[in-house]
Amino acid sequence: MILSIGFLPRALKQKDPAIIQQFESKYEPIGLPALIIQVLTGLWLGIFYDSQPMGWFTFRGSLAIHLALKVILVVLTLILAIHARFRILPKLKPENLKTLAFHIIAVTLIGVMLLILGVSIRTGGLF
């Protein structure tokens, strides 16, 4: 969210990919381990709630729907992060800054959806 609100608008306005690259170089050593920890603890917590992970994808019942959606959203986040890290960032130029902006905004929106789903599991759910 900090990247999408604080740095991305300035980078797009100035058409300067260095703004994103500087943020990424400082954040990556913290962000990637945090994402791995989030995935592992999320799986552990999901198994705590429902010990049958394959049952999550039956979409039967509120808990299964929540857990399946969270797994799907985390996988989408990982796909976008890997694609950005290995395909976009190494070749980042003003011309493809909008492609990276799409990734940044998508990951931010997915993060907000994950937050909402996580809170809804604890508060009785959306479904």
Characterization of this structure:
This protein has 127 residues and is an all-alpha fold. The protein has a domain at 51-127. The protein is built from four helices and no strands.
Task: Supply database-style keywords.
127 residues, mainly alpha
- How many beta strands in the DSSP annotation? 0
Q: Give the percentage of residues in beta strands.
A: under 5%
- The rounded distance between the terminal residues' Cα atoms is 26 Å
Largest sheet geometry: none
For the CA atoms, what is the radius of gyration? 17 Å
Instruction: Give the class from helix and strand content and strand pairing.
Output: mainly alpha
**Succession of helices and strands:** HHHH
What low-confidence regions span 5 or more consecutive residues with pLDDT below 50?
Answer: none
The portion of residues assigned to helices is over 70%
Shape: elongated
Mean pLDDT: 90
Helices, by number, come to 4
Give a concise summary:
This protein has helices at residues 2-14, 17-49, 62-88, 97-123.
Question: Helices, strands, pairings?
Answer:
Elements: H1 2-14, H2 17-49, H3 62-88, H4 97-123
Helix pairs in contact: 1-2, 1-4, 2-3, 3-4
